[in-house]
Write a sequence for this structure.
């Protein structure tokens, strides 16, 4: 394997791993948003 082929292989593996990790983290955040939905604080007695 010459240096160019090795370099391209490392580029594909590195970028692929990065994008895969970002996709997994995005999926985890989506699941957590569904499990723990956002509730706005209601401070009705502190309105000025």
């Amino acid at each position: 394997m010459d240096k160019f082929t090795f370099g391209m292989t490392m580029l594909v593996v590195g970028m692929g791993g990065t994008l895969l990790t970002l996709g997994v983290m995005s999926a985890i955040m989506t699941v957590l948003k569904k499990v723990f939905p956002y509730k706005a604080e209601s401070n009705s007695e502190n309105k000025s």
Observations:
- Helices lie at 3-35.
- The chain has a mean pLDDT of 90.
